[in-house]
């Protein structure tokens, strides 16, 4: 089969690899119907995730059809259309029993496209399939569902819930790529008084307004001045970091009010300064996190009920064999206006 293979920092190829096979009774094999590219894949290609070894098939966001299951799989049948979660869960370790699936000690967590081969391929092996897939309702399209593989639960859990967004809050989202847009969308569920989007790309700031941002600010201007004006000089209640750079994280800590929350969602490959000489007295909570995907069933229910509109997230569509072109488009959002790109089989 063909797959998108990581060859080391800056190197990727759409090339022939062996078909995946069942290697554990709890595995399932899916034929990939719809798949997308994540900003984390770009971080991998930049060398920011050294645990990913050359030869690894990338990707952790897909919808597919079950074509085979191990003897230990009880909840799936061949022909089922499923969402493949970005996080796999053994279900029995200490962290899984507490719902912290991202920290799974039993061989799960974020492993697809990281420590085991991922889903940017014709076929993919899904470990712990019963607990790491979701059968999809007929009224949920593949394109809508694939947004729930990673970006919606990540933004909701690591950004909105960790940041403790409450009604009436002023929320700032720094970086409004797909993760930041999903943070705006899910923050709006809690009726904040203001949502302020910060980014350098005009196309993404325009998209942020479509997703519910009240104010859009270019990062090269003075976001702090805008936030101070809106909050009467206090600062934001919640600031969500959705870039993954030292400059963006440090900017977030200047935008939050005393007693507020900074929720880091971005993937960081370099150290960032923590200015404790300024922050120690301000009662600020800083959270980090890897998504656990415990919210995926709730988000899927809302999607099926028409309560989440993710259609504007997808800006480019490709055939599965056009992965190299899709990466080129996704990697240059300032030039292409790309938010999420999806690739479909057939």
Automatic annotation (TrEMBL):
> Is Metal-binding among this UniProt entry's keywords?
yes
Q: Which cofactor does it need?
A: Zn(2+)
Entry-linked InterPro entries: ADH-like_C, ADH-like_N, ADH_Zn_CS, ER, GroES-like_sf, NAD(P)-bd_dom_sf
Enoyl reductase (ER) domain location? 7-343
Q: Which controlled-vocabulary keywords does the entry list? A: Metal-binding, Oxidoreductase, Zinc
Could you tell me which CDD domains the record lists for this protein? FDH_like_ADH2 (cd08286)
Superkingdom in the source lineage: Bacteria
What family does the database annotate? Answer: Belongs to the zinc-containing alcohol dehydrogenase family.
Name it: Zinc-dependent alcohol dehydrogenase family protein
Q: Which organism is it from?
A: Phytohabitans maris
